[in-house]
Amino acid sequence: MKLTDGLQALLEPAEHSRAPEARRVHPAAPKGWESGVRYEPGGTIVVTAPPAPEHPAGEAEWRARVEEMGLAVPEGFRVRLVEAKHDPAAWHRDAQGEDAVTRAVWRCRYVIEPAAPAWMSAGDVDALVRDAMRRRRKPRTAADTVERALVVAYADAQAGKVGRDGGTPELIARVADRFDRLDDHIRDLKTVGRGPTAAYWLDAGDCIEGFENVASQMFTNDLALTEMVRIHRRITFEGLDRLAGRFGRVVAATCGSNHARVRRGKEAVGPPVDDWGIEVMSQVADGFARNPDAYSHVNFVMPERWRDTVSLNVAGKIVGLAHGHQFPRPDKVGDWWRGQTFGRQPIADADILLTGHFHHFRAQQMGAGRLWLQAPPLDNGSDWFAVRSGEVSKAGLLVFSVGPDGWEDLRIL
């Protein structure tokens, strides 16, 4: 059957689809270098041009390359070369049916962007600053209802120790004064709309002076060992009782330390949890459990038997607690912390690390958004260290809050 002229024309390729002899044919470009246009938020246009034998010489040629792709550069915009790659092994077919040949080319990527930064369109630098300073502040909500936790760092009270700032009567008076300041701090936070919804009592260790850590302790203490433990237990009970009366959720945690560790001479006895500070926290927990009507909302966290650190989830942030005697000096905390991370220890994922032991306040950002807080002591002074170094520690109770944006409202009471 003979095909009609019309049907024959439909079956044959159109004349314009036949490649002319001189047409250059490029194979597929490497991944990421396909010719095309991408539109970015803010009005910027990213253009990947076809390969060319020569490197573009300047902005006029950059614009020409872009316009060859059929793009019109808007008024007030410029063309900028952002990436150029020399490809010495690119291959081509100069015409349909011919063999491929290797010829070096340049692959270029451009952006079409405003000729001046967006902020310059509002005026000069003076106007920019003036307008920013005169902007109307967004009204703050009347009540802040987000989760926010208060952290109280009780560190290095060393009950029974006698020093330049007195003995046991002075220690108790100092702690009582800090507890009163804590009440004021809680009131202040509520006044400014950042009142905590929960409280964390973090005991950083060295709650008692002990007798076995160094020889001088046997002659400079004003309490017997059992009396030291008793004083610490009653102070802890008082502090937690105050928090329990003000917050619907309270968490108390402690860690192992060197002064409170049960020792024979300088040598530790038993596992890391053989520690008077951990024992006192256990005693207080037992006492609170006897009165669920008043204390059922108080929880206690203590280290595992063979570990002396803990971590807690505080308002969505991980707070690690360690005494600090695990590393020889403050400047080594970073090395120790990184080692704990590799060893998958309790504080490996901590966003905030709280330590005591070194009897001074320090705050240092570390790594990617981590924070080390070295708590000040509450004791009667470390005269031996002052004699040796000239440095004098100042007593205080460290407090801070943890909220949706991380830590805030850090103070020493």
Strand arrangement in the largest pleated sheet: 12-9-8-7-18-19
Estimate the mean pLDDT confidence: 86
What percent of residues are in strands?
Answer: 15-25%
Structure summary, number of beta strands:
19
Main sheet: strands, sense, barrel: 6 strands, mixed
Low-confidence stretches: 6-11, 13-25
Residues in helices, as a percent range: 25-40%
* Content-based structural category: alpha/beta
Principal-axes shape call: elongated
Q: Give the topology string: H per helix, E per strand.
A: HEEHEEEEHEHEHHEEEHHEEEHEEEHEE
The end-to-end span amounts to 105 Å
Counting H and I runs of at least 4 residues, what is the number of helices? 10
* Cα gyration radius (Å): 36 Å
Description:
This protein is of the alpha/beta class and 413 residues long. It has ten helices and 19 strands. It has a six-stranded mixed sheet, with helices on one face. Strands 13-14-15-17-16 form a five-stranded mixed sheet, with no helix packed on it. Strand 16 and strand 17 form a beta hairpin. Helix 6 packs across helix 7. The N and C termini lie far apart (105 Å).
Quick structural summary:
The protein is 26% helix and 23% strand.
Give descriptors for this structure.
six-stranded mixed beta sheet, 10 helices, single chain, five-stranded mixed beta sheet, alpha/beta
Outline the fold blueprint.
Layout: H1 5-11, E1 36-39, E2 45-48, H2 59-68, E3 77-87, E4 91-92, E5 101-102, E6 105-114, H3 125-133, E7 149-154, H4 168-191, E8 198-203, H5 217-220, H6 225-244, E9 250-254, E10 263-264, E11 267-268, H7 276-289, H8 292-295, E12 298-301, E13 310-314, E14 317-321, H9 333-342, E15 352-355, E16 362-366, E17 370-374, H10 383-389, E18 398-403, E19 406-412
